[in-house]
Predict the 3D structure of the following.
Amino acid sequence: MKVRLVDIAHARSGDKGDTANVGVIALDPRWYPVIREFVTAQRVSEHFRGMIGGGVDRFELPNLNALNFLLHGALDGGGTLSLKTDAQGKVYSTALLRMVLDVPDAEAKRLALPAAR
Amino acid sequence: MKTVVRVAGGQGFWGDDLDAPRRQVEGGPIDYLMLDYLAEVTMSILQKQKERDPTLGYARDFIGAMESVLAAVIGRGVKVVANAGGVNPPACAAAVKAAAAKSGAGGKLRIGVVTGDDLLGRLDELLETGHQLANMDTGEALSAVRDRVLSANAYIGSEPIVEALDKGANVVITGRSTDTALTMAPLRHEFGWAADSWNLLAAGIVAGHIIECGAQCSGGNCLFDWRSIPNLADVGYPLVEASADGSFVVTKHPGTGGRVSVPTVTEQLVYEMGDPRSYITPDVIADFTTIQLAADGEDRVRVSGIKGKAPTDKLKVSVAYRAGFKAVGTLVYAWPDALEKATLADRVLRERLDRLGLRFEHTLTEFVGANATHGRLAGDQTDAPEVQLRFGVRGQDRAIVERFTREIAPLVLNGPPSVTGFAGGRPKVEEIVAYWPALIDKSVVKTKVDIVE
């Protein structure tokens, strides 16, 4: 079943130099294992292909039902050098939430995941 | 010893809500008012101001904030801790003292002034004695930009703030203290936490991280269930009610807008986070994977379980240097085919800049309304009601960037149709002050505390 990340998680992002960070937080603690399993560093790297210059690191915060991603080379040089509207990476959060996950039907049903509309 | 110490956050950056400090002291009982004014960009602005006038170089908003909370400081014993000193904490203290005297409170403040973070005057000595201040991201030695350096400050920790409070200060003014130390230091002072009580210090740092961005933990900029967050017009700024065991409650004053909940606090916890197991500060390394959050009644979140470990023997240094010039021009194209018109305008502009022989270090085209924030992920926008062409350039030569700014307005009459939104006039040329993050041995940074009365 297709599941939109925006329907099962919320997020906030910020910057450190030319790196954006995105924290993704499960809307329901039961859904944390789903984002941990399907929102991998590789998947995020593919999601942002052509938009970021460097790699993606992922960190797990099971205590907060959250993942933290570092998107390197995401801010056009970062800080004051950047010419981007989003020079401080404030809305990479919602850009990541555009991701659609392919969750096996049984698991999606068991966890009452909302289906993509 | 107090069993609960209340630290309220009243300012998340220089430019935040001017009235928030007053609301924080008047809205309910607090022991400390914590005001964070400094972002990286702020230090270089303040350094430029100090060069023009040696009595400036601090966050001037702080003087107004102090005037608005003076009665609470003198009458109720609320203490203020702020990094408003910028690159000139003594001048900031003098201005606060003068403002207090003018309000009839002369001699009633005991101001602790923390200095020693400013390395600008020591830069050559440091470089000569083997401190390379290499760029943490690129590894390049600072000598590459030495002649363009505007400011250089070490991020200092809680130690000198605790010292000032121990000496009886009721206002503490620092320069480049870490944002989190401004909250942790009062807790260390009140509870007598030892310098190697890693778990307790880490708890104070996490409390600081939660409230250092003002209302961003109490409903501001909160994506979770954002429609239901009440009364943002009167959003309550956050405060922590801390206990000696390192646990604390995040809350806000009764009757204020906004919300404090597990989701609002979680969003702030992940803000600007790197490796969560290793949140490095001068005092301690906090482990954000140990934080436990629990709802504790309306607009109350209990935070506990935090673990920390010994810090490194380095301090982070932020060096600001002149890095050229930039300008950004915009024009708005309307339906039908707004994006296609804006795309043609971009091509025409690039051809003209090319023909003029203008060469830039970097250019960037964005189509606001189509792809500026989410790039190709935003999908097809061919039927957008309007699209803003946003064209930016960057270069070392001010004249070339200046010449670019003359090429936007002509497009209104000699480019693609249905164009508007140029009322702001020619784009402004801005000098770029860039940041050079580096590390330095802790042992070479000596902080000092002076008491001004």
Notes: The mean pLDDT of chain A is 97.
